[in-house]
Amino acid sequence: MSVKRCADIGKTDDQPSDPGQATYAPPVSTSPRERVRDACPGVLRTHPAADGALARLRIPGGALDSAAARMVAGCARDVADGAAELTSRGNAQLRGLADGAVAVLATRVRSVGLLPSATHERVRNIVGSPLSGRAGAGVRDIAPLVDELDRGLCADPKLADLPGRMLFAVDDGSGDLAGLPADLALRAQPAGQILLLVAGGA
Length: 202
Known about the structure:
The chain is of the alpha/beta class. Helices cover 21% and strands 20% of the residues. The protein is built from four helices and nine strands, in the order βαββαββαβαβββ. It has a five-stranded mixed beta sheet with strand order 1-4-5-3-2. Residues 50-107 form the Nitrite/Sulfite reductase ferredoxin-like domain.
C-alpha cells in the first residue's frame, strides 16, 4: 500500500480538500439542513472530487490491526486509485472511487469492525496518543479508553447528530496531544485520575 499525506494534512477539521457538496449513499439518510452544514465524508457518504468519489474511514485512536491494515490496502488497490491517504486526525482516506464502489467498501470496512454503526460513522473522530502503551510513553495505556469512548458514542442515538468535524482526543498523560484543538479531551493523570478538557480548557 502506498501511503501519502492528504492535501489538507495541516487542517484540524479533517474536511475534504476539494470543493463541492458531499454525495449521499444508502443506507444513511440526512436532512437538507444537515447536508449544508456538514460536508465531512465517510464510507457511506462520499465526497465528489475531480478524480472521483472520496471516502474517509474513521480509525479511532489511529490504531489498526493487521487484518484492518490489509483491508485498507486491498480497498485502495481494488476500488480506489491505489493509494491510502492519512488525514490530520489519523483516519484513512481513499480517492478515485468508481461507481458502485461504496457498497463494496462498506462491506469490507464493516467486516474488520471499522464500521460499527452506519448512523454514527462520521462522528467517531477520536485521536489517541500514538505511542501509548509502549515503554516509557505516558502514564497509562489509553487504548481501553479510546474503545470505551467509541462504544459510548455509537450507543447513544442522539450523538449521531454531532457534526462530523467534532474532535475527541485521548492523551496518555505525555501531553503529546496538548496542542491539538480538540472539542473534548481526556488526559490521563499520574494518580490514576482522568482530566476532562472542554475546547482546550479544564
